[in-house]
Amino acid sequence: MNYRIDEKQAFEMFGVSTVVNSDGDHPFIDIPAFWTKCISDGTVDRIRKAAGLGGNGQIHGILYNKGGGEFSYMIGYFVSQSGIPEGFERLSIPPQTYAIFSTGVYPDGQSGIHELWKRIWAEWFPTCNYEPANGPELEITYDRGNMYEMEVWIPVVKKAGA
Question: Is residue 76 within 8 Å of residue 70, measured between CB atoms?
């Protein structure tokens, strides 16, 4: 599995969020439905405009506040020097060590992000020297010309004795 361990300083994101049921396949249904809603109602375009991105600028997903069978999911972007744009929520991300996994480069709409999430939890965590840390998890999307790449960032700490 393609991954790296990276130290990140604190940063802030802005965007819109929803609460997702974390049981079973709910996240794999509810999160794409939230994206579809935010694309169709113009929210994604408002985030891109507020972030100073072009019409195809890539925005990101953030999972946070896990607990009680649910978590919050934000669609958003990094807060710039000018601050949080009006009409959006702010999310502060603390400094953390992240395990960062890549989908590899793919054509639009073919990322395999769901399979990557499943493999991280089923294959990587049971066999690695890290365990998940409490903190936001991110889905970062990069435009690679006429192809795309997604990364999953999961906060981690070394296992005791590792």
Answer: no
Count of beta carbons in the 10 Å neighbourhood of residue 52: 11
Three-class secondary structure of residue 113 per DSSP: helix
CA atoms within 13 A on the CB side of 37: 11
Q: pTM higher than 0.85, yes or no? A: yes
pLDDT one-digit tens code per residue, 2-54: 899 999 999 999 999 999 999 988 998 999 999 999 999 999 999 999 998 87
Alpha carbons 10 and 93: distance in angstroms, whole number: 5
* Sequential DSSP letters for 45-61: HHHHHHHT--TT---EE
CB atoms within 10 A of CB 21: 13
